[in-house]
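Example 3.
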Amino acid sequence: MRERIRITYEFALAEGESPEAGARRIALEQTVELPDGCYPDRIEEAVVARVEELEALAENRCRAALSFAPALVGNEVPQLLNVLFGMVSLLPATRVVEFELPDGLLRRYGGPRFGIEGIRAACTNAAGRPLLCTSAKPVGLSAAELAAICGALARGGIDVVKDDHGVADQATAPFAERVGRCSEAVQRANEASGGSTLYFPNVTSPVTELFDRVATAKAAGCRGVLVSPFATGLDTLRWLAENSGLIVLVHPTFSGALYHADHGVSLPVLGRLLRVLGSDGVTYVNAGGRFPVTEQECHAVNDSLRGPLGSLRPALPVPGGGMDVDRAAYWTERYGVDTMFLIGSSLYAQGDLEVASRRLVDAVTGAAG
Amino acid sequence: MRERIRITYEFALAEGESPEAGARRIALEQTVELPDGCYPDRIEEAVVARVEELEALAENRCRAALSFAPALVGNEVPQLLNVLFGMVSLLPATRVVEFELPDGLLRRYGGPRFGIEGIRAACTNAAGRPLLCTSAKPVGLSAAELAAICGALARGGIDVVKDDHGVADQATAPFAERVGRCSEAVQRANEASGGSTLYFPNVTSPVTELFDRVATAKAAGCRGVLVSPFATGLDTLRWLAENSGLIVLVHPTFSGALYHADHGVSLPVLGRLLRVLGSDGVTYVNAGGRFPVTEQECHAVNDSLRGPLGSLRPALPVPGGGMDVDRAAYWTERYGVDTMFLIGSSLYAQGDLEVASRRLVDAVTGAAG
């Protein structure tokens, strides 16, 4: 049983520095932030990260697996981020490539409260096929206009209709009015067609508003919400999972600031972090769309969300972009049915959202059959 | 008077793409996130970002100044981040290099509530010279041990003694006990020596704890706090400035994830953002220390913190690293007296913190004389 936090970094060695010295430098930087000998001996044992594995890489780089005492985190998400990639984020060409938590911390954060199974249980019409998700947009439309879009998408059979991440509480469609109208439009469509579409409002908001927005969403009958945790702070995700009682779908806006070829936090590590903190579904930009992501990276993200992780539930991968009627069979075969495809532009470009949605649902159902 | 948000991006053009087409692509990505023609005409005028300036750069890159309607942000910090670097963060080699807000939004966020003048008014012994700041560390020490360090630093005349950013609410030094003991140690030192040292506890915490930690800090007589907004979420910084009544000193842990040579948010833009949201002092890693930052970048950060910015107060630059007794004159001459130097390792390495602190205060006083 894992008892320490384990984080693997790839980083640039200083001029003439050995891998051992480099790894020790990182271990100090991420914990005591003091040179050797400037702290009591017992701190070495209790606090300083241990170098568990070490590998020299090409171009004067190095990969080091370090382990940290869980007590450093003390259960708090900001401290977890600090241990994960705090001061070393400021060093040159330094990357987090692996990240494992002890069972105690996994249980503490708890992971997805619904996960794939919980989302499927709510979307009764999607059995045996990948799920489909579409945003009501763009920002600037009125609440009534957005509700009309939600209704059309629901009548067309889209499983999860969500607010666009750019739609928050702007004057054009204030949160409470929008959530009421959109939720009602989706419920009405479900009643008329026997559908099981869910509407997830965007609760991304100032720290003092989040609680009210969740309460408003619940009062309107919503089963889940959308949040952009890289804009709100990752601890709000933990809070939502622990306290909202709602399915939590995560949007990746701003997250691209965090990863780069040789610096930052790798995509699968971000995916795992989001799952640990309680994401039921994780939206990411898919390969083959307008973003520079490889299919291999997407598979790694899917694995981090769906693969074994202590006692935590699997989270639903939600690749966005690159998906349309013609590609339904391809992506279903690549990613499997326990995936939710986020489709936007290719539906909007067809004009009639209801008809376009129904065609896509049929294509995905056929592809999974 | 500026009426729109203006953000300048540098980004990679797609194969064969003109700068005009690239800038239009970014403008759509950051607002409607839909292709041309998939939204009503009035949305083009009201919502889509406008391309204000355009310049082709070497290596198939481009610089484009876009302007956005303030209504897109609706006053909320997460939406500001979304507009600043939301979806485009996920595009290849894309960087925010300039960022200007209309007066209305500047006033709404309010900037530093104390700023340089307010911090100086509290540090009465530091008139006419740069201020000095040191962290009590490392994490793992008890509250009593940390308080003893705070007392020694205060007797030595350090102006601001702060918690280490890695010290939060761990079992070894629980927040309330630590803040009480450290604050008392500093007050006692001030009374004995006629000093004016301030103690800033680290209130970086889960979203639901922040309010209590601030209350505890105030009850203990603290005049300011430390926060790591890249770990808590930037909106907590806005909340602290608006509601705490305390001097807010910002720590950069995790922020290095956000900037790179060709991607992310540039250091001066981050500095400006932190000032707008209410940082009274901004800690950053100094040139000449153990981090890869140039002196030119540090000057740009200093300018973003101290230069004119609507009606907002100047914020105090707090360069960390690379500073010791021998370098006091150099850095004072380079950055000016309205700077606070964060010094850690070079004091701790000398063993007797009180003596080492006094020597440094004398050196800085001499350098400014």
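The CA atoms of residues 168 and 202 of chain B lie 6 Å apart. Chain B touches chain A through 80 residues (CB under 8 Å).
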